[in-house]
Write a structure and sequence with these properties.
Oligomer: single chain
CATH class of the largest domain: Alpha Beta
CATH topology of the largest domain: Heat Shock Protein 90
Helix content: 55-70%
Strand content: 5-15%
Number of strands: 7
Radius of gyration: 35 Å
CATH superfamily of the largest domain: Histidine kinase-like ATPase, C-terminal domain
Structural class: alpha+beta
CATH architecture of the largest domain: 2-Layer Sandwich
Order of helices and strands: HHHHHHHEHHEEHEEHEE
Shape: elongated
Number of helices: 11
């Protein structure tokens, strides 16, 4: 800031220096003017000028230092009051622009909320014909056709469910209800949901739940497990998916282990990034890169940690680490 101040005032500083040099030059060439007193006056003038510069620096830069420290938010309370006409012009311009941005932001938020409400309403409306379609599929006699229809119905159902929860994630804190939930019930319900898909791919389940009750939100925990199961099924062939829960040092863990194609080690740090699919099978169209991202986002407010271990061709192990009871003190619903 000092350098900026001096750069801004360099013309005035040079003018003062030129005037002092000019006075000394006149005293030097004019014998009638005593050089010593003029030199003394110039020295005193220089000291006064330095003091003046220091005073003006702290006074004139206070406003601009507050702008420099301003976090570019729409809160102008952090900006110092202007003390000069030029600072007033700057402050008025910033205030007007901020008011316009606030109005635009408010309008955009309203539009986004309306779009979200419309989408949620549409998703709920679509569920009605989907339910009717499921009943109609159940009456199809051709088992091969019935299996294919069930699989496509399930894909639509899971995609709609994913969109529904993605829109609700922005206000998940308002939707949480932490309680003792039955892990076994949730796991078996989610397996039943994807049963037709598993039958078609020849995938079975090996379930061993030593811990059946965990402290969490039933709806969002179901969503997380659903994303992890669909991911495991999608990238597995005929094999068993192991699901086991256990306790270590008073903390509950849930493992979902598949024997699928695995994940390249260089992809592991990015699998929870939105839109990331794979560098190994980059042209694969079935993957959307959204399931694990949503699972991670939903797990954060529940204080659930998701860890993934995998190797190419050796399957993938996803571990959910549930928080201890005293870690939920700050969560709503307790």
């Amino acid at each position: 800031m000092i350098r900026n101040f001096l750069t801004e005032r360099v013309s005035w500083i040079l003018l003062f220096a030129a005037l002092q040099v000019f006075g000394l030059f006149i005293a030097y060439i004019d014998a009638a003017i005593p050089f010593g007193p003029i030199l003394y006056i110039s020295f005193l003038s220089f000291l006064l000028f330095v003091v003046f510069l220091c005073f003006r620096y702290f006074k004139e830069t206070r406003f601009y230092r507050s702008l420099e420290d301003w976090e570019s938010s729409l809160d102008l309370s952090e900006v110092a009051e202007p003390v000069s006409p030029f600072e007033t012009i700057v402050e008025r311009s910033i205030t007007e622009q901020t008011a316009l941005l606030k109005a635009e932001l408010s309008e955009n938020r309203i539009h986004l909320e309306e779009e979200k409400d419309d989408l949620l309403s549409w998703i709920h409306e679509v569920k009605t014909p989907l339910t009717a379609m499921q009943l109609m599929i159940g009456r199809v006699e051709n088992e091969s056709l019935k299996a294919h229809l069930n699989q496509e119905w399930l894909r639509i159902h899971l995609l709609l469910d994913q969109q529904l929860h993605q829109k609700r994630l922005t206000v998940i804190e308002n939707d949480l209800y932490i309680e003792q939930v039955n892990l076994e019930s949730i796991v078996f319900t989610e397996i039943k949901t994807v049963q037709s898909w598993c039958i078609q791919k020849g995938i079975g389940f090996d379930i061993q739940l030593d811990i059946t009750d965990v402290l969490s939100d039933a709806k969002w925990l179901s969503f997380i497990i659903r994303q992890l199961l669909t991911n495991a099924i999608k990238y597995s062939d005929a094999s068993d998916i192991q699901i086991r829960s256990y306790s270590q040092d008073g903390q509950t863990f849930l493992d979902i282990v598949d024997q699928g194609r695995g994940i390249d080690p260089k992809d592991l740090p990015r699998i929870f990034d939105k839109g990331f699919t794979s560098t190994t099978n980059h042209r694969e169209l079935a993957s959307t890169g959204i399931g694990l991202y949503l699972a991670k986002k939903a797990a954060a407010p529940l204080l659930i940690k998701i860890d993934v271990e995998s190797q190419i061709g050796q399957g993938t192990t996803v571990t959910l680490s549930f928080p201890k009871q005293n870690e939920f003190v700050n969560l709503q619903g307790m």
